[in-house]
Structure prediction request, 478 residues.
Amino acid sequence: MTKKLIIIDDSLLQLNVLKTFFSNNGWEALGVQNAKIGYEMIFDFAPDLIITDAIMPVMGASSLIKSIRQNEKISKIPIIVYSVLDEINAKFYVKEELNEYFLKKSEKHNELLDLANLIVEKYPLDEEYKNEILKIGIQNYETKQQNELQSEQQNEQNDDDVSKNANINKFDKKEYETEIKILLNSQNNENKIIPELFLILYPKFNYNLCLISLFSFENNERTTYFDIKDIILSPKFKDDVLEKHKSALSVMYKKYAPNLKTIVNENEFLSKIEFSIECRDKNIVNIGFYSCENLKWNDETLIETTKDLLENFFKTYFNKKSSSKSLKDDIGNRYFPFLNNKFENIKNSSNNAYFTIIQISNYQELSLNLHHEDMDLINSMISKKIVDCLEDNEQIYRSDIDEYSVVIFAKNDKQAQNRLNYIVNNIDKMVYEEEKVEILIGASPCIFDNNFDLAQAQKMARIALDEAEVDKVVLKNG
Prediction:
């Protein structure tokens, strides 16, 4: 029987890569970006295994695991924490006696697949156990539906028949514009912005389905986001939509539930509005509102306002993202992946070379409060600031998620110390989204003779870094 898997990771790219990989290897994989929603999905999906990232907004792996282990109905489900953390830090999250495991993230996923197969073989969940989980999901859904129905009946007691037929809520244009502007200024990426946008749009249109198909200039792919209310989309319908919009990826915002109408064909919607947005001679967004009722979406002011606001919203958003990307591109030629290949030129310098490690010392704290793309932008900003402090023949590369390795030149240790202090002053306490970046620097001179040893230079820089907690910059001779 096919094994079922829930993957939880707030990185959409990572999520879709893992979903595709496990699906291609015989698993039925469900992906979700929010750990709280992932917890709810357990009762609708009854997985044989859960794979989760460690550090995520809203709810991290430790809280998720605690919630699962405290609920005896689902406590037997095995869990893998799949994270960029090292194994020492990961021990904070997992207890192997409770069927919990840790694996460091890698671009090669075969090790993760092997571990997953081993775990479900070692700790199989019988069908009776999983059926009991699904029963709880149905009970939870029926209770929620009943509560929502009672609330809806209470709210609709005074509704006018004409407004029901139109199914359009009165809206304040100025308030509408303010909501969109606040969202645009939030600095979030689309994984946070799109669900927030749906929350703004739904009260205006009261749709059964809203879809936003979004093009990314970064990876030249399109992702389609589905916001579903009171219906179920068949796999065929979803595939047809993805093909129509030439979309490689999809994200579904909905609650799995029984006894709802399943939509197989777009013609089953009796009302719809569709429009597109262009930017830089490229179709960047397709937007559609759909309803199963024959509604009169004829409030031209609402429709035209929505089109204008969303056109401005997405064009501005893409221009902001493009600016962030160009920041990375500007410094790309200063990076080198293999330091050894560059040392031939460095040896010819008349000055001393200093191998330097620059570390974001509060990286883990920042990553708890900020999203992955925010962290990418911080790294881009730090890289740019470092590059601004370097001479033409000096080099930099990002050696770890929280570290940069840099080679600078100076006549002597004093001059090198002054230059490294300048880098610290240029970066330390840099503020992003009210979060302060803190860095430490360790450096060591590279003595170029017949016995030159890059590993020794790196080792001495690492020792210097470990001593830099107070002084910020430590230069250590080998």
The longest helix spans residues 300-331.
